[in-house]
Amino acid sequence: MLTDGPVEVPPGARDLGGAEFERAWETARRHRRFTRHRTGPLPEGSLVTGTVTVAPWGSGRTGLVVDIDRPGRAFVDMGQLPPRAEDWPPVGTVTGFEVVQTHFAVRPERPDLEIRLRPTAVPPPGGPWPRRGPR
Description:
Blueprint: H1 18-30, E1 34-36, E2 47-54, E3 63-67, E4 73-77, E5 94-105, E6 112-119
Parallel strand pairs: 4-6
Antiparallel strand pairs: 1-5, 2-3, 2-5, 3-4, 5-6
């Protein structure tokens, strides 16, 4: 923000070193559009049933998009899935998930809800994914 006059340094302020500033700036930049929600209709820790709809970049890369029959985009990061791509749930799998994070992007042109999930039960390698009841 531009000012018309001199900028005063607040009491108790301290100078940051280059690496410390870069770390703080990167954190602020990553979270600039998101507000976390631990309450509301889908707080962190909620259990939901979802259907794997797509592996956007193929199985074993990035993660999976899941339809949980609610507004927003639900996604499972690859770090929450088995290490071997062949053990990931295939498209069409219906199973249980836990809400890990819920972010609401504050954009004037289009609010955007993003829901990060993790599977609640992972089968042994090569085994079928546990099926949840109807939603």
